[in-house]
């Protein structure tokens, strides 16, 4: 009788251990599945569904994405730019199509230097601005300024309107001459020469070219800033308080 009781006890303990082991494995599997599902959900809901490929939404644009290249004020490809393409919110792209249609009738095309810019790219700029020894592009983009003042004078900032998805940097391309219009200064030049209303060392033609771009952008609902002739933000931008961080690549 004692042997039978001992045998039954051993069987019961073994069954309990097996049950606990199976429950533990099931719990691990469920946790793993939930973690995977959470990761996929984060990836799918990064906000990119609110954006479009600019070259598809505005077929006449010319792309010269400077932060994908090495020809920019940093001198290297910027973090988050995986492809030489441009993205904008659907609303901004739709309005920019109206601008493109109008300037095309004037004999121009829009040339895009930058559009949506992920927060990680802005962070890359900030890190670069704190490295006083990295001045390889100084002669081209900030020859009259010491690098340590770029952040203080807000040429580099911790947040950018570009990360909200409805800001674009652009110029006009003349279809007759097959060249960019002469704006009297280059994109991303840090200095008063880039102010839209600057007149001291540029010609009347260069100033008028800036105004052609400025006026048509304002007409269609984009607002300029006082420090960069190439920079415009959709006045009624759909995400005024959201800074996206997904990579720049074709959607």
Commentary on this structure:
Strands 2, 4, 5, 6, 7 and 8 form a 6-stranded mixed sheet that branches. This protein has a two-stranded antiparallel ribbon with strand order 1-3. The protein has helices at residues 2-44, 54-57, 90-105, 119-129, 138-141, 204-219, and strands spanning 51-53, 62-63, 87-89, 108-114, 167-174, 179-180, 222-224, 231-234. Helices cover 37% and strands 13% of the residues. With 251 residues, it is an alpha+beta fold.
Number of E-state strands: 8
Number of contiguous helices: 6
How many domains comprise the coordinates?
2
Tell me what the CATH architecture of the largest domain is: 2-Layer Sandwich
User: Alpha-carbon distance between the termini?
Assistant: 75 Å
Percent in strands: 5-15%
What is the ordering of alpha helices and beta strands?
HEHEEHEHHEEHEE
Low-confidence stretches: 1-43
Q: Helical proportion?
A: 25-40%
Largest sheet geometry: 6 strands, mixed
CATH class label of the largest domain: Alpha Beta
Q: Kindly report the oligomeric state of this protein.
A: single chain
Explain the layout of strands and helices:
Layout: H1 2-44, E1 51-53, H2 54-57, E2 62-63, E3 87-89, H3 90-105, E4 108-114, H4 119-129, H5 138-141, E5 167-174, E6 179-180, H6 204-219, E7 222-224, E8 231-234
Parallel strand pairs: 2-4
Antiparallel strand pairs: 1-3, 4-5, 5-6, 5-8, 7-8
């Amino acid at each position: 009788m004692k042997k039978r009781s001992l045998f039954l006890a051993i069987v019961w303990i073994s069954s309990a251990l097996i049950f606990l082991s199976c429950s533990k494995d099931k719990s691990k599997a469920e946790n793993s599945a939930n973690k995977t599902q959470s990761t996929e959900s984060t990836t799918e809901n990064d906000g990119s569904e609110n954006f479009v490929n600019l070259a598809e939404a505005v077929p006449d644009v010319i792309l010269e994405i400077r932060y994908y290249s090495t020809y920019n004020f940093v001198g290297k490809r910027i973090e988050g730019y995986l492809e030489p393409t441009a993205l904008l919110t659907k609303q901004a792209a739709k309005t920019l199509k109206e601008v493109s249609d109008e300037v095309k009738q004037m004999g121009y095309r829009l040339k895009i230097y930058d559009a949506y810019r992920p927060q990680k790219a802005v962070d890359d700029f900030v890190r670069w601005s704190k490295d006083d020894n990295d001045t390889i592009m100084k002669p081209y983009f900030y020859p009259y300024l010491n690098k340590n003042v770029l952040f203080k004078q807000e040429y580099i900032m911790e947040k950018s309107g570009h990360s909200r998805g409805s800001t674009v940097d652009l110029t006009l391309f003349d279809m007759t001459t097959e060249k960019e219009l002469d704006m009297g200064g280059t994109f991303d030049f840090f200095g008063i020469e880039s102010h839209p209303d600057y007149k001291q060392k540029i010609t009347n033609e260069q100033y008028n070219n800036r105004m052609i771009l400025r006026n048509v952008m304002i007409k269609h609902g984009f607002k300029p800033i006082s420090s960069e002739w190439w920079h415009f933000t959709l006045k009624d931008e759909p995400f005024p308080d959201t800074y996206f961080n997904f990579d720049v690549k074709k959607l």
